[in-house]
Amino acid sequence: MELKDRESLKYIMNRKSVRVYEDREVPEEIKKKLYSAIFQAPTAGNMMMYSIIEVEDQKLKDRLIKTCDNQAMIGKAPLVLLFLADFQRWMDYVKFSGAEEFNREHNLEEYIPGEGDMMLAINDALIAAQTGVLAAEELGLGSCYIGDIMENFEIHREMFNLPKYAIPITMLCIGYPTEQQKNRRMVRRYFTKDMVVHKNSYRKVTDEEFENMDIEIAEKDKTVFLPGCHNEGLHMYKRKIISDFMKEMNRSVKEMINSWSK
Q1: In CA terms, which of 85, 102, 132, 176 is 20 to 30 Å from 15?
Q2: pLDDT by residue for the chain (262 residues), tens digit each?
Q3: Does the reported pTM lie above 0.90?
């Protein structure tokens, strides 16, 4: 039996991003099941250092289209979930629980959340989001990640009234896929298992392996490269790595880190 034929893994093996949705809402009962599955996601210390904002307001969705690199699907998605790395809730909870008095009694300084707290919260948020992606598949829904939510941090912080220790990490557009989306072919993956899975220590990919990969990609796909690019690597370099949206994302994430740390 092939891996993709196993019932427990078929949703992973067949999953692809869905950017066009049927014009119908996700029923509350289905959303309830989706959230129940998300809440089963593992988290660091079982602390659930994430929050989810369900974006219902169409005006907010329309604004997100512009702040997230003009991705029109956001405005048409029946369900839009914004995942936050959230340590604010724990800071509020320990304050409620008497942390200030505890610090005075034990001659301790006030705890200031650091980069480690932020990274754990980011992990929690991403694990929760991916759990939601797989649960959505089983519920007959399609989804697409919106990484561009990490751009324009200052705008998103104001839009969603985010406190100091809650930052946007990813966003999901979710809905029932159209027949065209169901039937379109899956996008290839660039790197092979040998390039990704290392034994005991890191191994750099050789030039020969990259060359063989390019040949295989060229044989399978007829990619139209961007102007000035004659191979897949340069195409992606120009399209993604040195793009204007990546410059903005890097600026925005730096501001997130600075805002958390200062």
Answers
A1: 85
A2: 455 556 768 888 889 999 999 999 999 999 999 999 999 999 999 999 999 999 999 999 999 999 999 999 999 999 999 999 999 999 999 999 999 999 999 999 999 999 999 999 999 999 999 999 999 999 999 999 999 999 999 999 999 999 999 999 999 999 999 999 999 888 767 899 999 999 999 999 999 999 999 888 877 776 778 899 888 899 999 999 999 999 999 999 999 999 999 8
A3: yes
Number of domains in the chain: 1
Does 208 map to a domain? no
**Domain annotation covers residue 229:** no
Spatial CA neighbour of 29 closest among 138, 121, 139, 113: 139
Nearest CA to 122 among 157, 95, 147?
A: 147
Tell the residue number behind the tokens 């979710």, with chain if given: 174
- Structural domain including 136 reads 3-186
What's the distance, CA 171 to chain centroid? 6
Question: What is the CB-side half-sphere exposure of residue 241 using CA atoms within 13 A?
Answer: 7
CA atoms within 13 A on the CB side of 140: 10
* CATH code, domain carrying 164: 3.40.109.10
